[in-house]
Structure formats: C-alpha cells, structure tokens
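Known limitations

Structure tokens in this collection are predictions and should be treated as such. Users comparing against experimental data should check residue numbering before alignment. To illustrate the layout, the record for F-box domain is reproduced below. The input appears on top and the generated tokens appear beneath it.
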Amino acid sequence: MTQLSSLPIVMVQRGGPCEVPQCGTSALIQPPCGKWMVTHWTIANRRILDPLQLVSLRSGSTGLWWRRTTSAVITYDVVIWMKQMAVVLKSCPISTCHPSERQTKLIIKSFHFKSSKRRRKAEGKRHKGRRRRNAEEGSDWRPWLDLPEELLDLIIKSLGFLGLLRFASVCRQWRFYASRFRTEIARMRPPLVLLMSRHSKGMWFLHDLYDGRTCVQRIFDMSHKMVIGCTSGFLSIRDHINRKLHFVNPLTAQKDYTFTYPPLPFSSVILASASNAEIVVVAFHRYQKCLQLYRCNDAHWICFSVGEQYKIADLVLWHERPTILTDDGKILVFHLGSDPYFSVLNHMVPPMRLRNPQLVVTGGELLMAECIDPSDRYSYDFGDLEDGAFDNALRRHPFKFYRLHQNRWDEVDHLGDNAVFRSSCRTKALYRPNQWGGSSNSVYSIKYCLPRRVPDAIFRCCIYSLSGKVLDRCPITAGEREITFGKNTPLWYFPNISGNIDPIRLD
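Generated tokens:
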C-alpha cells in the first residue's frame, strides 16, 4: 500500500477552491473537520461519471463521489462522507477564458447515523427534500447548462463517437447540441470495433480506436443466436431456435426488423429499401449457386439460381443493384422487377486463381479485394512450404486489389486516400482516414492474440501496408473484462450509416 507520507496533500478549506489531482494519481484529502482519507483516481480523462473506491482510515466509514466531464473542461463535484460529518464541495466549470467568473462553493452539513439502514433512509429523505426545495425556490443550479457554445465546440471536437453519445446523455441542451455534430463526427471518426464475449449473454462491446473508449451495450438474450454480419447500419442476427432473422441497431440495442428464416442455408444477408419504402432482404451462402429474396409485399422467400457454372463468392449493392462476384472473378448483376433475371458483365477475369475474394464499393467504384493476413499462417494452405518459402509467398501476395475499369479488372497498387477495413464477413473502405489520425493506403484487420504475448488485450487491431508491412498495432480492451473468441467474430461497425438502409432498384 502507498505510504501516506509520500502522497500529495489536498486541503479542502471553507469557501476556497480545491485543486483536484490529475487522473491516475493518489492523494490525501484533508477536510475542514480534520479527518483523513486516501483516494485513487483510476478513470480516464474522457470519462463522464465513475465511482471510486476509498480506503477507510481513522474516520470510520468514508466515501467519495468525484465527477469530471472531459479533459477540456475543469468540472468536478466532490462529496466527502464521514462518520458524523458530510462535507460537500461543489465546483462549477472553470472557463479558460474567464476563470474569475466562476466561484467555488463549500457547504458543510452535519449528520449523525446510528446504522447503515437509517443512513440510507435519511439520505433518501434528504435528497427528496432538496429536490422539493429547489423546485419551489427555483434554485436547481446546473452549471453545465451555462457553458458557452465556443467551449462546447472544443469539447465535441475532441471526442470520439462513443464520447459524443455520453456527451449527449448529460442533459437535454447538450443532446440537442450534439445532434448537430453527430453526422460530422461519425464521418470524421474511425469505425467502431464490435465484439461479443462468449461468457456474457447479450452483452456487446463497442471499442473506439480514436480515444480507446469501450462501451458496454446490453441487448436481448443471445442464446442460440449468432451474428452473421453488418448490413445497412444494422447487425444481422439469426435465431436457430425460433427460426427468425433479426436486424438490430447496436447503438440503440433495439430489434428494428424481424423476418422469417430463409428456406435454404445462408451465410450472409443484405437489407435494402426500395423507392416505395418496401423492405427487401437478399440472402446467400458463399460458394453456393442459389440466391434467396424476400420482399415485404410478398411476405415469403423466393429462390433464384445463378446458373450451374457459377458459384457466389460475395454480393454487394452497386448502383442500387445486387451485384454478385463469382469464384472465378466474374460479375453478375441481379435485376429485380416483375420478371427478375441475371446479366453477366462482359469483362476480363484475373489471370490467377482467387483466394477469398470480396467486393468493396468506394466512391461509386467497384473493387475486388483479395486479402491474406500476413500474421495468420494457418488461414490458407500453401502446400508443403518451409518457413522461408511461406514468408516469401506472403511478401509476394499479401493484399491484392483490382478495380473494374472498362470491362476489365485492373490491378491497383495504391488505394489513394482510402483505407480498407477487413473482417471475415464484410470488407469496407473509408475515405480520408487521416482526418482522425489514421493511415491511408492501408488495411485494418482485427486479430486475436494470445494472452501470453499481449497480456493487456485479447484482441488487437493491426494496420498493414499493401506490401504486408505492419505499420501499427492497437490493443483492444474492455476495462478489466476479458473478451474471448466465441461463435461471433469481431466486426467493423460504421456509425455514419447507423440506422440507414441502403437503396435498391426494383426495375
């Protein structure tokens, strides 16, 4: 335990300010009544509200509630509870431009509690009476409501997307102010990493690479359910027991759409909306020859065969039409209407055999990605190669991208201002990642790492160049909670399309 003599002393004086230590430091707080206590700040600077555990000394039962909004604004409320005395220190936000306009108030009140039960009962009555008096006198003082808009701009611009959601939950005024910047912040921040612990039913972890914040989201019971991907800002979840297909917004944890199970096996689905507001669901299984379509107006599934000579490798919406990539690099366009049909684009296929190809739509262009993670030695079978030959094969063929241009696939060696975010079910591209500190012309991939190699994280985000060189590694943690591999693998979730449904053409 830390020696008391080595800790800095913070004096709480009547009518004077209190200099709260920085987060991650220990300190002694000496109230006016002469009692001592030890506190330890372990929360991050960007947290909004967190309780802290205290060490009880000679003063008997002690406690502390410390609240700080962000590192950009000095805002804290300290409540010191002792056996027979309660010292309440309230400090309003201190603006860097006008620090003299804010004054610190100190209120000292005495209470005597003979038992913990009577103490809790008295606390409830006291808070209820205080709220009643504030409502009658109109003295419900909330200092954060008086912050100038210039200061709110500085706070919002320094937050990640998860921090913006916490910012909007403070009060109604802040929620209205955050709604004006939500679209801009979502577009200028990296996508969220969505993980699920196999030991926690219905518990999701959203990790923000921008500031390292992790948010825990509880949804419905995930027993006998599995996430199969993200589509149109929703998570697609299939229920094996009830044979239902759910689409859930991970930010609101609400089931927005529910459909019956497709009759044939499927591994991926796409949710889209027509111009007449009709919801359309397209389901397919990789390396199979059947496409399944569900239209809300028909209320049943229809199966379409792509042909005996084709196998579906991937499917995306390109120019508002379902576009299919076959295992040999051909493109099929599915035309919906009264008489649906497939059309084959007249283009040249790549000369080499493709391994795990995926389609990526960026800026109206169609890319074909073939990504082999250089750190995953067991993803693909390269034959009886020695270690040196395996590494040489990866260096020759780590990541390959082709652009569909004038009816042919042209290999590209530079992605420009784009970054590709790779996952097992869906690969997407993001424009201008340098606006949030990311790397352009690179590939982001979520990897599972052994605890003995990375003790602080079970997952990490690896950033690769197109040549396979590791540019950076970012650990992904959820506090002290261990996130392990289950039946749901990590996903990239783009908050800028949260709740939006991709359009689809029915003609």
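For this record: Helices lie at 116-137, 149-157, 161-168, 172-187, 387-396. The chain has two domains: 4-141, 189-503. Please report discrepancies through the issue tracker.
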